[in-house]
Automatic annotation (TrEMBL):
Protein name: C4-dicarboxylate ABC transporter substrate-binding protein
Annotated signal sequence range: 1-26
This protein's GO CC annotations: outer membrane-bounded periplasmic space
InterPro entries documented for this protein: DctP_fam (IPR018389), TRAP_DctP (IPR004682), TRAP_DctP_sf (IPR038404)
Upper lineage: Bacteria, Pseudomonadati, Pseudomonadota, Alphaproteobacteria, Rhodospirillales
Annotated GO biological process: transmembrane transport
Record field: transmembrane: none
Organism of this sequence: Thalassospira profundimaris
Superkingdom as given in the UniProt entry: Bacteria
Protein family according to the UniProt entry: Belongs to the bacterial solute-binding protein 7 family.
Keywords of this entry: Signal, Transport
Pfam families per UniProt: DctP (PF03480)
Length: 352
């Protein structure tokens, strides 16, 4: 009888333990991850980054963290995603420079035009001392986020328009170009002689279609997947800006992770950045990049002399903007950015 009682107690204890384990598994930490692009990892770097991040986090934590992805602004605009991360409504987002600017104005230092000579140089800058300093400053300013990296948004910016080919400064005159709400983007276009017209991303296609705006600036893959070639005739490979995402995570969520989970999340974020860069380069070389636009648009590239001329009229304007609006800390960040960019550009030309 005592044996039966002991067996019964053992069965009961085992059932309770199984229930506890099942409950713990069911109560996995949920990481809600929102961004503003589609759910195809082969179409855009945002989802490539997110998909790789989610896969590593869920696999390496054995399901202790579950990543829920909300693409295409399902939960709100890109700027609203930033506030949602801060409020703990979602745990992560990839935010553009335009979306984060109202929370962190010093992001504008990234918009020094015609700074980089190659994609490889951008990797060195954002993975190096400047990237570390920028992440720390964002974290200190916002106070409630952890910055895990700076993924690729699709490469260098190009300019499209419906009026005529743009090959020199005179060609910009009178052309109304859509920009983000960033003052720096507007000043750059104005310095080139264009009319800057801030407009929300969701309104750009219709604005181009109806003639409210004549053109816009974005990486070439964005031109392709947004189908701007349907409403634009001319594309100029200006390569004037490189504008990465900022990978932001809720600090409250981060602090609630175990040290091992933090290690996994940081590694997954680093892998996400690498994935965004790889997919961006593949898209650029595929039918979803420049190759896919050939024959659909008239495409021009700047000569080194034209690029230098554009640089000479825009960089001083941008530097003055930083000095006047972003204070000593902004100037300090800009100086570090310029120094690291110069090193990275020079490195690309070194031979053994």
């Amino acid at each position: 009888m005592k044996t039966l009682k002991r067996f019964g107690a053992l069965v009961a204890a085992t059932a309770m333990l199984a229930g506890t384990v099942g409950t713990a598994h069911a109560e996995a930490k949920i990481l809600k991850f929102a961004h503003d692009n589609k759910l195809d990892p082969f179409e855009n770097p945002a989802q490539a980054c997110t998909a790789v991040f989610a896969n590593i986090v869920e696999a390496d934590t054995n399901g202790a963290i579950k990543v829920e992805v909300y693409p295409s602004n399902q939960l709100g605009s890109a700027a609203e995603h930033v506030q949602m991360v801060r409020d703990g409504l979602i745990q992560a987002t990839l935010t553009s420079t335009g979306a984060i600017a109202s929370y962190y104005p010093r992001i504008d230092v990234l918009n020094l035009p015609f700074a980089f000579d190659s994609n490889a140089a951008t990797y060195d800058v954002y993975d190096g001392p400047f990237g570390v300093a920028l992440a720390k400053d964002i974290e200190a300013t916002l106070g409630d986020v952890e910055v895990l990296g700076f993924p690729d948004t699709g490469g260098f910016f190009a300019v499209t328009n419906s009026q005529h080919p743009i090959k020199n400064l005179a060609d910009f005159k009178g052309v109304r170009i859509r920009t983000m709400s960033l003052p720096s983007h507007q000043k750059i276009m104005q310095a080139l002689g264009a009319e800057a017209y801030p407009m929300a991303w969701g309104e750009v296609y219709a604005g181009l279609q109806t003639g409210v705006i004549d053109g816009q600036m974005n990486p070439v893959p964005t031109v392709t997947f947004a189908k701007f070639n349907e409403v634009q005739k001319y594309l100029t490979l200006t390569n004037h800006l490189f504008s990465p995402y900022t990978f932001m995570l809720s600090k409250a969520f981060w602090d609630d992770l175990t040290p091992d989970q933090q290690r996994i999340v940081r590694y997954a974020a680093q892998s996400c950045v690498v994935a965004s860069r790889g997919v961006s380069r593949v898209i650029e070389a595929s039918d979803r990049g420049l190759k896919g636009l050939m024959g659909k648009m008239e495409i021009d590239a700047l000569t080194p002399e034209e690029r230098e001329q554009f640089k000479e009229v825009t960089q001083p304007v941008m530097e003055k903007h930083v000095q006047e609006t972003l204070g000593d800390k902004g100037v300090e960040l800009l100086n570090l950015f310029k120094a690291e960019v110069q090193k990275a550009n020079e490195k690309q030309y070194l031979t053994e």
